[in-house]
Amino acid sequence: MRVALTPKVDETYKLKADFGSGPGALSAGVTAKVVGIYEPGTPGLGASAEDTVSAELTDADGALRILALPVSQWQELFSKVSK
């Protein structure tokens, strides 16, 4: 079994598959740069029992977006881009 690595600030990741629906949906292949890792209970990031990854990405329309997800969900949805 392969163990997923915990993301680190300044690492770049790629979305594995389409995520969401409607105007806010993200297409597979979009890249995101990790800008922060926050512990559970950090105000403004929602309720989570685990650390939360915050990342910046540019959507298909060229708009800068901020995404915050629990680490386990991040690991399911994104793969690290090798340098």
SSE topology sketch:
Layout: E1 12-15, E2 31-38, E3 52-58, E4 64-70, H1 71-77, E5 78-80
Summarize the structure.
This protein has 83 residues and is mainly beta. It has 1 helix and 5 strands.
**Number of E-type strands:** 5
- Portion of residues in beta strands equals 25-35%
Mean pLDDT: 88
Structural class, from helix and strand content? mainly beta
Shape: globular
Order of helices and strands: EEEEHE
Helical segment count: 1
Q: Helical content, roughly?
A: under 10%
Task: Determine the N-to-C terminus distance.
Answer: 24 Å
Radius of gyration: 13 Å
Unreliable stretches, pLDDT < 50, 5 or more residues?
Answer: none
Architecture overview:
Helices cover 8% and strands 35% of the residues. The protein has 83 residues and is mainly β. Strands 4-3-2-1-5 form a 5-stranded antiparallel sheet. It is globular.
Keywords:
83 residues, mainly beta
